[in-house]
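User: Before I run my own analysis I want an independent prediction to cross-check against. Here's the chain; please return only the structure tokens and, at the end, one sentence I can use as a sanity check.
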Amino acid sequence: MLNRNCSFWKLMGSGKNGTFDLKPDYKQWALIAVWKDQQAFESFKNSSFISSWWKTFCTETYTILSTPIASHGSWDKQNPFKTSENIQFDGPVAVLTRATIRFNRLKNFWQNVDKVAGIMTDAKGYITSFGIGETPFFRQATFSVWESLDDVKAFAYRSTEHREVIQKTRDENWYSEELFARFKPLATFGTLNGKDPLAGII
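Assistant: Structure tokens:
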């Protein structure tokens, strides 16, 4: 993306079930972009060729504008989500988890996906999620939205099944690279499957 106000971007495919998924949805795509400020994003959304192209050819578009509140790990050897220290707030939280899976650990990874995905969608405070990926099978990400940070922590650390999978990723060295980031959702634009899943929440 030739835009000096965009410091990082990834165009990705999408899974069908809201999480890591072996079955791609060829009708749905995702863009993650990091903008210099909200004005730069608004300029892109309102007047860029790419945005106009989407409006012309896409049946539906949905955008979640967010600001990072915590991030660790790397994505292509960098951490694109710069955060200020001691950011605290009450309200919905978006979470991005992404990883590059080692080829010799693909079977281990995919054997555990469905179990964790089912737990996540039934967890307290879960609102919605999107399974996305740069490359099928081994460069995967999930972007999920929760009612509060406490709900995120409860799912991540108090779910026995989720803790067991996290431990496996460490013991069996599944990933060659990984990143975990949290965001404060600021605004949404458009619809997903005919509605805005965050309507009335932010």
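Sanity check: The chain has five helices and seven strands.
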